[in-house]
Amino acid sequence: MRIDLHTHSTASDGTDTPAELVRAAAAAGLDVVALTDHDTTRGHAEAVAALPAGLTLVTGAELSCRIDGVGLHMLAYLFDPDEPELARERELVRDDRVPRARAMVARLQELGVPVTWEQVARIAGDGSVGRPHVATALVELGVVPDVSAAFTPQWLADGGRAYADKHELDPFDAIRLVKAAGGVTVFAHPLAVKRGRVVPEDVIARLAAAGLDGIEVDHMDHDEPTRARLRALAGDLGLLATGSSDYHGSRKTCRLGEYTTDPEIYGEITRRATGAFPVPGAGGPLA
User: What is the 3-state secondary structure of 247-281?
Assistant: First the structure.
């Protein structure tokens, strides 16, 4: 089985619609794909309706969190999307995305970059506007060569010159809320140092003690020594070790299935979840 547990669609900051994403996942030879848009489940229904036969969909979201001034992302799988407390927190994060993006545009303008809110809003379309959309605007203007190059202290990284805060969950609250909604939590790309500051390992240990289920080990932003370090840490803390592409369509260079999760780990995730269940494809429309 080929299992990719971290992808994004146009419901947040990917470039494929949810329907296009599941068709692309099937074409890439995946058996299981998780749709984990930022702080939203809005793309799930479209993905389910288009799900090709032979492909299983894991519903999820990537929750924006912050602790001790450091931003981090928490992958939440197979939770009940209607659980009211978690739904309310996701809404608070989404509602803060527009003023935050407008603030980043204003800071870029102060730095002499001719970006406009209209440009960023066009790039975001119907998705939940975020830093990748602002980064894409910088690419369009020729300020940076690619989206990844915008996530530096010079521009949009945490604490960067054009960075702006938004409402974010405490990760301990995120774990509690997801568990209450019957879901499973995995700390996304925990040592992606190129994105900015990362939490120390003692915080990961505290999160594990609070009920964190796993950490994303195999990821494009982790080099081989970092993966080995994380795999050992997962073993020490009794955490599940996952692998994922973090696919964003054409917005990033990673490919669907570039990194995958072991079937036994996937099986354990599904065993722990009680809020929702993986959806087997029934043969959605081809286009």
Answer: ECHHHCCCCCCCCCCCHHHHHHHHHHCCCCCCEEC
Q: What is the 3-state secondary structure (H, E, C) of 205-234?
A: HHHHHCCCCEEEEECCCCCHHHHHHHHHHH
Q: Are strands 56-67 and 70-77 parallel, antiparallel or unpaired?
A: antiparallel
CA gap 93, 110 in Å, rounded? 26
Single out the residue of 140, 146, 144, 142 nearest to residue 154, CA to CA: 144
Q: Which residues of the chain have pLDDT under 50?
A: none
Q: Residue 73: in which H helix or E strand, if any?
A: strand 70-77
- What length is written for the chain? 287
The H or E element that residue 32 is part of is: strand 32-35
Q: What is the pLDDT of residue 145?
A: 96
CA atoms of 3 and 243, how far apart (whole Å):
8
